[in-house]
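Narrative of accomplishments. A recurring question from our advisory board has been how the design workflow behaves on a single, concrete structure rather than in aggregate. To address it, we present the structure tokens for one chain from the evaluation set, followed by the sequence designed for it. No filtering or post-editing was applied between the two.
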């Protein structure tokens, strides 16, 4: 999962591979940053001790990999909203091409050590379902995208629920602000007309993987 790739120099997004990398990097950043920062904040002065514990490290790994598909779905919805005004006549098939790209990003990763294969497969199926729902409604503002995901994400935090306190609104606001930033970066970097045209070409071919 490409968390630290987010700090590399940001190149323009003009093709499918660059778009897939953007989705991967920002999905990882979106879900992992809050997991680490929230855990440190709740642990306070004991954060170094907590993060050195093997059991807690395993809990963090479980949280971040279970949250990754939620990040993919949220970032994909940002991407779809930016691309939709540039879609061609066959918008549905172009959307299906975007869904295939997002699923191919998920498929970059083997089953994580912290999960078993049935759960990883179930998470992929759930991601596919969430992606299909994006195409059933008008584009949302980036700030509104986290609403159906925020509680699911918060419940994955590697902190016992009795110790979480009233932190859900803070996590929800983090998702909203970060997705707005991702949207702004995407609109700056992506040649939406070119990428939409490539999705259209992909929709008209038999190719569905990231080339």
């Amino acid at each position: 999962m490409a968390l630290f790739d987010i700090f590399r120099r940001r190149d323009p997004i003009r093709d499918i591979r660059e778009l897939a990398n953007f989705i991967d990097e920002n999905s990882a950043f979106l879900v992992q940053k809050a997991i680490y920062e929230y855990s440190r904040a709740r642990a306070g002065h004991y954060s170094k001790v907590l993060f050195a514990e093997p059991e807690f490290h395993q809990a963090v790994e479980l949280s971040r990999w279970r949250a990754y598909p939620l990040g993919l779905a949220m970032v994909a919805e940002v991407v779809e909203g930016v691309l939709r005004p540039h879609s061609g006549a066959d918008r549905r098939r172009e959307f299906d091409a975007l869904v295939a790209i997002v699923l191919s990003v998920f498929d970059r990763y083997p089953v994580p050590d912290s999960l078993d294969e049935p759960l990883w497969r179930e998470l992929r199926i759930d991601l596919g379902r969430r992606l299909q729902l994006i195409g059933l409604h008008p584009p949302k503002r980036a700030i509104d995208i986290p609403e159906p995901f925020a509680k699911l994400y918060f419940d994955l935090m590697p902190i016992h629920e009795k110790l979480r306190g009233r932190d859900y609104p803070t996590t929800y606001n983090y998702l909203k602000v970060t997705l707005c930033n991702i949207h702004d970066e995407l609109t700056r970097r992506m040649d939406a007309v070119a990428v939409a045209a490539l999705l259209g070409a992909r929709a008209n071919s038999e190719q569905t993987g990231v080339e």
